[in-house]
Amino acid sequence: MSENPSTSLIHARGLTKRFGDFTAVDAIDFDVAPAEAFGFLGPNGAGKTSTMRMIGSVSPITDGTLTVLGLDPRINGPQIRARLGVVPQQDTLDTELTVRENLVLYGRYFGLSREECGRRADELLDFAQLTERQNDEVEPLSGGMKRRLTIARALINEPELLLLDEPTTGLDPQARHLLWDRLYRLKQRGVTLVLTTHYMDEAEQLCDRLVVMDKAKIVAEGSPRQLIERYSTKEVTELRFPADVQDSLDGKLDGLAERIERLADRVLLYADDGEAVAVAAHERGLKPETVLVRRSTLEDVFLRLTGRSLIE
Amino acid sequence: MTLPLRVTPTLMFGSRRALRLIERNLYVYRRTWIVIVSGFFEPLFYLLSIGFGLGRLVGNVPGPGGTEIPYQLFIAPALLASSSMNGAITEATLNFFFKLKYQKTFDSILSTPLSVADIALGELGWALIRGALYTVGFLGVMVILSIGVSPWLLLTLPAALLISFAFGAVGMAATSFMRTWQDFDLIQLVVLPMFLFSGTFYPLDAYPDAFRIVVQLTPLYQGVDLLRSLAVGVVGPSAIVHVAYLTVMGIAGLVVVSRRLDKLLLK
Amino acid sequence: MAALSHVLEHRAVQYRRTFRSSVFSSFLSPVLFLTAMGLGLGGYVDRSGGAALGGLTYLQFLAPGLLAATVMQAAAFEATFPIIGGLNWQRTFHAMYATPLSPRDIALGNLVWMAIRLAMIATVFTVVIIAFGAAHSPLVVLGIPVAVLTGMAFGAPIAAYSATQRTPNKFNVIFRFGITPLFLFSGTFFPIESLPGFLQPVAWLSPLWHGVDLTRGLVLGTLGQNPVAMLAHVIVLTTIVAVSTWAAVRTIERRLVRG
Predict the structure, then answer these.
(1) What CATH number does residue A267 fall under?
(2) What residues of chain C lie within 8 A of the CB of A60, using their CB?
(3) DSSP 8-class letter at C223
(4) How far is B1 from chain C (nearest CA, A)?
(5) Buried b / exposed e across B93-105, counting CB within 10 Å, b at 16+?
(6) Mutation site, B49, B52, B180, interface C, largest C CB count within 10 A
(7) Among B187, B177, B176, B178, CA closest to B116
(8) Which domain holds residue A205?
(9) Which residues of chain C make contact with A154, given a CB cutoff of 8 A?
(10) Which of C6, C90, C91 has its CB closest to that of A108?
């Protein structure tokens, strides 16, 4: 993990952010390489957004070092921002302008000529599949369309680095998949993506590498597969029992699996062969209401590391 | 005619449940009482500045019945009428629109036993209560400053409420047709000229005959002349005309808004 | 400079969509006030003798005051909703901050736009004053920058305050107890000499009074009557604008950085 700072697109050591007495980000270290898709995975309040705002050079660092695109945000904020694209958690679209105007006027802030803004706007409208709606008001667009517009707008200056804060929160599954597809294409074009999310499927789908954040600290890092291999087993058997039976299970489950997690409504048995565990449980006389054998996910990783689930 | 029959039983039957809406508004406004209290000050400020400050330069003007009265006495009842109108319009347009479009307040209330007419009445009732508070306050000020102590003054309270009722009902009716915030300019386009030209600040004698007749047909003038006659103590048959006009206006507004709410909310 | 021009461009394109409603508040409303009060009421004031107005008709007395007051009200409006919306609802200011713009650019850009809007309104109203025949001096055109200065003396401090608010609730109180009394008692409708003796010095605390007196002097060509007072007006207004502009930049910046 000791990457050469000069090749990292983003380099952070001991990065800290405090608001008065409250520490939002506690001395974290990470590096983001060019053209990779890097994720910050963690529940709400973990410090992901604060970290993103520091990278975005809109929030001053309290302590530690941070270099973005080789520059110091404290000194070169505007220059860094000129080469970034930002997709914030809440859409900051201008409801008094049309879809197209949102793109063109934003481009002007980067010093592009009107013709250039218009040209890029056309391309981006096509990329975001919004060409038909370009002269519409922003207000009546669906959530997914607004998010696509925000992403398109973040690309108007052809950024080297795209920061996305919870890009698909609140969207329906179809919108999410469309967005993931678009982001994947960007990655193929060589744009570096840094995103935060509390959705494990998003992290698994999009990210080459990620760090898991909890309570202002980084608790693990690696590729999704590495994390699952390191912190969880290949498969998980979920057993659901009626409430009264659930309470009297002590002792009956011992030895069934490598690791056992007791949740409020079910029991998770971690092993490399989930089917075998299910069979063994049945042989012991346990009678669960439902049995589910599945692959491990990042949710399980997070549960292992923090004892809590990603989504409260 | 079936129309009055349809409306009147609801007015009588629904009115008790409409009280629940008033209760709800009281709850909401408990915390923003300062907004309500501050509404009392606006006509007071106008009275002090234009009534007294400017009044010194104006002296006496012809009042109802032709006698000359001090400018303060001329303007005070007119300010009361205007503030009754403005207060009712603000509540019946801005706040009503906000509840209708954004807070979807009424959608949830309709899943209770309350009916559409209840909603209209309840909202109007709330506007009237606020108006009554302002009116009592303003009348108190008038008495303290000894502007007009005719025995008819007591009737100005119900008369002011009638003005609020009329404009509140019509305001809600107009609002039920609006689609965006931009449409509110149209309301101001009607309200501001009325406020300025209905004999509020100067007698209608200032106008050429044709224009004077037009103004006398407008709603705020009814209220202004009614309250001024009561405050000065020169009450004639025109007062009855004013009362009838405002009453009909109010009922018409209520009917329209009930119909519109029916269409909008019970889809 | 370029950054500022981009902000202005943005606000200008937004304005294309909403200018129709501003026609009412910036043009129709003052014209109606001028007609009703200046002509209608004016007849009764003039009839009782214009001695108190220094030989002026009420229309001549009222018009410049109304100019300053209209610009003040427009400034109060421009300084609240666009700022609160830009920082909290649409969050367009945050979007601007994610570009090479600095918070200072964003704050100053929006204040300059406010001044431009005020200049537009003041120009239109000045034309109206001339059309009504109430102008008595070529200096009347200077009434435009003076009105803008007066407006900004309200707009800038209110903007500084707006940046600290997340909802417009407190503004009801500011408008009812601040703007409206100032509008009514700053020598707009009647000379401050008509105020009770002990209140007259208080009028000097009103930025609107400074603007009204100065504008009246320009429109009616009576500057020479009390040049010291006029100069004092300019200094007071300029100081208010300078200090509150600095404050507005600070509060907007703080809000943008905080997120």
Answers:
(1) 3.30.70
(2) 257
(3) G
(4) 42
(5) bebbbebbeeeeb
(6) B49
(7) B176
(8) 10-228
(9) 98
(10) C6
In degrees and rounded to multiples of 5, residue B244 shows phi and psi of: -60, -45
Gap from B190 CA to chain C (nearest CA, Å): 11
Residues of B contacting chain C (CB within 8 angstroms): 32, 34-35, 38-39, 41-42, 45-46, 48-50, 53-54, 56-59, 61, 182, 185, 188-189, 192-193, 196-197, 201-203, 206-207
Query: Do A135 and A281 reside in the same domain of the chain?
Result: no
Our count of domains for chain A comes to 2
Do A154 and A263 lie in one domain? The reply is no
**Is A5 part of any domain?**
no
pLDDT for residue A190 is more than 80: yes
Position B21 scores a pLDDT of 66
- Domain check: are A31 and A107 in the same one? yes
ipTM confidence score: 0.86
pLDDT score recorded for residue C11: 93
State if pTM tops 0.95.
no
Q: Where is pLDDT greater, at C27 or A85?
A: A85
Sign for the pseudo-dihedral over CA of C4, C9, C12, C14? negative
Do strands A10-19 and A63-68 pair parallel, antiparallel, or not at all (unpaired)? antiparallel
Query: Residues of C with CB below 8 A from B87's CB?
Result: none
pLDDT in tens, A15-27: 999 998 999 999 9
| Cβ atoms C186, C209 nearer than 8 A | yes
Range of lowest pLDDT (A111-125, A154-168, B105-119): B105-119
Contact between C98 and A56 using a beta-carbon 8 Å cutoff: yes
Does A95 lie in the same domain as A45? Answer: yes
Q: What crossing angle do the helices spanning C58-78 and C103-131 adopt, rounded to 10°? A: 160
Mean pLDDT over residues C137-154, rounded? 92
The closest CB to that of B192, out of C29, C45, C184, belongs to C29
